[in-house]
Specification:
Blueprint (H helix, E strand, L loop, with lengths): L8 H23 L7 H30 L10 H32 L2 E2 L3 E2 L8 H36 L13
Antiparallel strand pairs: 1-2
Helix pairs in contact: 1-2, 1-4, 2-3, 3-4
């Protein structure tokens, strides 16, 4: 599958697995408080934490692969447009890393109960403001990540439908 115009299969899989996890995490994050208090909410939050940890692992693997073995394609567009696309990709990576890192710290700041199997010790039991701030910033970054990723996806579709320049085929090589 690797050619001069498409990413290798591992890069494609990491990309789409990351996208699926980010959307699932965002949806779950938006609905956790809709679950009944007690076990249903504990399990929903535990699933969010688990998926977040899986995203952390996928992100590290993806980033390592990109640095060491992944296909490196030139910018799809010349000039400012190409530089902007590269900047957006870097910002997506940064937002994923910081959002996941802050999510992990939020677990520690709250002292979450994980599937009623164990409780993560609270960073500072007396600092409720810290817990609220960390969770709020994590949510803000998650929303920013989703907005940027949606824009990224919309522009990829625009390139495919309007520009017909093959940009989307780079990450979806089965497109004709």
């Amino acid at each position: 599958m690797t050619t001069a115009n498409t990413y290798d299969l591992k890069t494609v899989r990491y990309h789409w697995l990351s996208a699926i996890l980010i959307v699932a995490l965002w949806i779950l994050g938006q609905t956790i408080d809709d679950f009944a208090k007690g076990d249903p909410r504990v399990y929903a939050r535990s699933m969010h934490i688990t998926l977040g940890l899986i995203l952390a692992v996928v992100f590290v693997l993806r980033f390592t692969w990109r640095l060491k073995g992944g296909t490196k394609l030139p910018p799809a567009a010349p000039g400012v447009q190409g530089k902007l696309a590269i900047g957006v990709h870097h910002l997506l990576y940064l937002l994923i890393a910081v959002t996941v890192g802050l999510g992990i710290f939020a677990v520690w700041a709250r002292g979450d109960n994980i599937f009623n199997l164990f409780r993560v010790p609270v960073f500072d039991p007396t600092d409720k403001e810290l817990r609220e701030q960390v969770v709020d910033i994590h949510g803000l970054l998650a929303n920013s990540l989703l907005i940027l990723a949606a824009g990224h996806a919309a522009l990829a579709i625009w390139h495919h439908v309007v520009m017909k320049d093959g940009v989307l085929k780079r990450i979806l090589p089965f497109l004709k």
